[in-house]
């Protein structure tokens, strides 16, 4: 999917919501455990109930990998279901991968070509030649971890290098990578005030903002400091939507939670004009 | 496996060689492609031929993930084969994972409990709460990326923070993490001269050194600067061993290449006394 198509979808749906499919057998409704593939059954129900309210889904790969081969089967079914039934949806493999060049190419092929995800999250620590293999894929997007929303972000990401925080060095340096136009960035919403400075460095890039909801960010704050005139934001919510209820009505409850956010987002998009 | 058991194995086998199982269908001998599971058939033959010459195997997970479910099945068979037939071998999941706390716990369970690897490689960028979930597993080892052997290492890892390179900040900071005794570190052998300073910061930790061979490091240099009195080194070779030949004799050729390194390692261990 091109960035332009993503922006079109945002305006059409009046939403820049990304729903995190962090599907956990210990948290999904009990009645689904009788299904042949409970993880996929859950995801399908959530997608059916919410796809008109969001523009992206983001399965965190750890949740699937934790169930071994069964988890991978559920992931394959989920991404195929999305690509066949909702090709307008932007899909994000939240994998946080990163390895030396020829190995990164293997991860890129696995997620971009075989699974046909539109994008993948990548850790920046190993630098240029670990990231560029992902950037080489046309109309695929590499979402680099810049500033994460967890406490450990302060261990290294906010440390100063030549008078500038490490995460800003990541933002600047990565903009010189080949095919940098295919870069997006993860920026934790718990630091909304940082967004002004981030926007000075990367005015045009899309930001994937986790942590609105369970991790404590504020939608209005993020939009105020992070939105650009191409919107430039995907805001993720996982648990607050997919686990809004763990009864028979879980899908309807998820749709309600998503609708609540979507309406707010429509308001924020209105301010753009 | 405890660190003490690993050190015992090193002395018993007179080797601190780790063999990287970066198994690639495009590089393995053609006759294996007729097997039901060519990846496992290749790994089994390599293990059968080399297990007495090395103390560790390190499958890079990207190579398996690239083949989807078939790849995961081959990985599961490989680790099970090692754990059943060669329980004295130290196993490393070269996964370079790292995520927020509860997600890291899922990766830890997948690799430590379900697949029963002895250790996993982890990227440090997200800090303490992304690493500690791995450290919580007793007699399991978390191998943190510090200084990698690729060109991109110079993008961030060697940048100065308060007069000290980022990778040294990673070494120091991580030593204060809970259960830091379960930490080992990846240190690229192409920078053997850096090992003196690294040993000042972490005199006792085991180092996993990739890049001897294909990536250009020197065994003698690494031992001179990196060895401690508990050996403290695992030196990895992947392509130089497993692809020593791609004919019918590939396993024997792998054993010859491994033997060549093992003999050199025995010489280096002799210098310890």
UniProtKB/TrEMBL annotation, chains A, B:
Q: What are the BP-aspect GO terms?
A: 'de novo' pyrimidine nucleobase biosynthetic process; 'de novo' UMP biosynthetic process
Query: What pathway is this protein said to act in by its record?
Result: Pyrimidine metabolism; UMP biosynthesis via de novo pathway; UMP from orotate: step 2/2
**Name of the protein:** Orotidine 5'-phosphate decarboxylase
Gene designation = pyrF
Task: Give the record's keywords alphabetically.
Answer: Decarboxylase, Lyase, Pyrimidine biosynthesis
Its recorded reaction(s) are: orotidine 5'-phosphate + H(+) = UMP + CO2
- EC category: lyase
Task: Name the EC number(s).
Answer: 4.1.1.23
Spell out the catalytic residues: 96
The UniProt record lists the Orotidine 5'-phosphate decarboxylase domain at 16-254
Report which superkingdom the organism of origin falls in: Bacteria
